[in-house]
Design a protein that fits this description.
The chain has helices at about 10-35, 50-75, 80-105. With about 110 residues, it is mainly alpha-helical. The protein has one domain.
Length: about 110
């Protein structure tokens, strides 16, 4: 019986992707803001790619953070400082969106 080949990914790659996805998310948030500055409804002037990045990249960051922790645990290694930084940076879009939601709800 044959087994499928398993691809081993270095945990540092996950950390790098987490940091780059968060930077890409912030760039798409700035583009979304600039594109919708003069829009009447506040969201229709943004392109589909920017909207996709705003919604999908934070979810992808959660998957990468879980993969990073899982990989480190399977290798019986502790999280490094870079790993912790990457996980913290990966959660920033959720914190930012949560704060915006709270400000919107509390302003009514």
């Amino acid at each position: 019986m044959r087994t499928l080949p398993q691809f081993r990914v270095n945990p540092t790659v996950f950390s790098g992707f987490l940091i780059s996805y968060s930077a890409l998310w912030f760039a798409s948030a700035v583009v979304f803001y600039l594109a919708n500055k003069q829009s009447k409804d506040g969201w229709s002037a943004a392109s589909v790619g920017v909207m996709w990045a705003l919604f999908v990249l934070p979810l992808l960051a959660l998957v990468l953070a879980a993969s990073l922790v899982s990989t480190r645990r399977s290798k019986k290694q502790r999280l490094t400082v870079v790993d912790r930084l990457a996980i913290a940076v990966g959660t920033v879009p959720f914190v930012f969106a949560g704060l915006l939601f709270l400000m919107m709800v509390l302003s009514r």
